[in-house]
Design goal:
274 residues; alpha+beta; Jelly Rolls; 2 domains; 6-stranded antiparallel beta sheet; 5-stranded antiparallel beta sheet; 32% helix; 32% strand; globular
Length: 274
């Protein structure tokens, strides 16, 4: 099995509450079913097993196997009732917390990918402490007192109407510079963003390898076009290969409108070579 980086389980069980609920509920129900069958089997067959010198392990194994038992007795067929209840319960959990099997498959795929791909955390900011290297409110604005881009309560906030933005592209935001990247290595920038109800503001992550001015060798935007984030924190990630400049500028960029956009965490990860 590949290396599991130290942030994998923290991410899975802290930030993904859906996974947490699903795992806990499933394990609890499964454990109860196993226990019920083992106790029942021991009561019915335990004495016979011991008399035949099969021992307790065979008893437990046989009790466990009853979970998947389909009994056929002549023309009368009975499906294990507890198994049927378990499957219905799990289907309910999947539907309620994962909005269908498609989302569940995506989560499982993400888990497997994290297991077999090793990543190194280069940078992480949850905005609990204001870092001076964040350049807030880049580009011109018409009302500097409005504080359209700020960090409060462990969150980076974007809040501006179009009349407050002076640049012709009508964009604003924050950026953070990195140098000393390893040329040719693969990196990934990840952030979690959401909007408040009825917001019309849009958001985009913009990366490039130029932090000294002039033309960039490489740049990327994700999503391709700015979006209105969902009302729940959604993950946006961008992968890239470090160029000969060995530098990176992360832009968290917003377009003005009604409402607010909130960013709660930003990471820079490096893919390690085996």
């Amino acid at each position: 099995m590949g290396y599991i980086d130290e942030h994998f389980f923290k991410k899975a069980f802290s930030e993904e509450s859906k996974i947490k609920k699903f795992v806990y509920y499933s394990l609890a129900v499964f454990a109860l079913v196993v226990l019920a069958h083992i106790v029942g089997y021991v009561g019915r067959k335990g004495a016979t097993d011991f008399e035949n010198s099969s021992g307790p392990f065979v008893t437990i194994k046989n009790g466990f196997s009853l979970i998947l038992t389909y009994v056929a007795d002549g023309s009368k067929k009975n499906i294990n009732i507890i198994l049927a209840i378990l499957l219905i319960f799990l289907a309910f959990i999947i539907g309620k917390y994962f909005e269908g099997l498609k989302d569940l498959f995506k989560i499982i795929s993400s888990w497997l990918k994290n297991i077999y791909i090793r990543k190194q955390l280069i940078f992480e900011d949850d905005f609990s402490v204001i870092k001076e290297k964040w350049h807030l409110r880049y580009w011109e604005e018409n009302n500097p007192d409005k504080n359209i881009n700020r960090i409060e309560y462990s969150t980076m906030i974007f809040e501006a109407e179009e009349s407050q933005i002076a640049n012709h592209e009508k964009k604003f935001g924050a950026y953070y510079d990195f140098d000393s990247l390893s040329e040719g290595d693969e990196y990934e920038v990840v952030c979690w963003v959401k909007s408040i109800p009825d917001s019309t503001m849009k958001f985009q992550v913009w990366l490039h390898d130029n932090i000294m001015g002039g033309r960039s060798i490489w740049s990327a935007r994700m999503p391709k076009y700015p979006i209105i984030p969902s009302l729940r924190y959604q993950k946006i990630s961008v992968k890239f290969i470090a160029t000969t400049r060995k530098a990176l500028r992360i832009h968290l960029e917003a377009t003005p409108g009604l409402g607010k956009i909130l960013v709660r965490r930003v990471k820079l990860l490096k893919y390690l070579k085996y």
